[in-house]
Amino acid sequence: MKTRPETTEYDKVYQGYVALVPETDIQRVLEEQKDEVCERFRNLPPARWDHRYAPEKWSVREVLGHVIDSERAFGYRALAFARGERQPLPGMDQEEWMEHASFAHVPPAELLEEFELVRKSQLLFFCHLADEAWPRVGIAYDRPVSVRALAWIMAGHVRHHLKVLHERYGVAPPPSAAAPAARSGASRPK
Fold first, then answer.
1. N- to C-terminal Cα separation, the chain
2. Helix or strand or coil: residue 143?
3. Which helix (H) or strand (E) holds 30?
4. Domain map of the chain by residue range?
5. Which terminus, N or C, of the chain has the lesser number of Cβ atoms within 10 Å?
6. What's the pLDDT tens digit per position in 95-115?
7. Which residues 6+ apart lie within 8 Å of 171 measured at CB?
8. What is the pTM of this model?
9. Is residue 88 helix, strand or coil?
10. Is 95 helix (H, G, I), strand (E, B) or coil?
């Protein structure tokens, strides 16, 4: 669906992520983003994958792992609400999830493949989604959110972390990537 979500379709905690995606063709954004992420990381030197810009911060490898985890969480919410789930879904405590993750032991090439496969799965899901499913709303993390908003949140979450990786970790965009105009930062909803 090529209609941006209304502000009534998501909680203000997600405004920053949605604002990072001004485009109307979300499927195109998600597809291009998959390629951009893979291109950005494909040539990253091995030593950079474990870089942290501060001791208590996640490594580059962990940031990508977090993006993959979040992609799965947002995708599950979209699936559940598209299928009419009425039960509230839990949030995710990103710090707790990271404590139990083993991204430090996953080879970079496998992390990239995992991101690409998870994103391809999301793309196929959204591609086959009936028009009437896009505006369906459910409760996640004690907040209402539509299926449509979750697609924009998913793309905005990745843009947020790519910006952080560039500004704080020195992981620059590939020369071929058309960087989105500078936008305000996003809060960190779970």
1. 25
2. strand
3. helix 26-42
4. 7-169
5. C
6. 999 999 999 999 999 999 999
7. 40, 41, 44, 48, 60, 165
8. 0.90
9. coil
10. helix
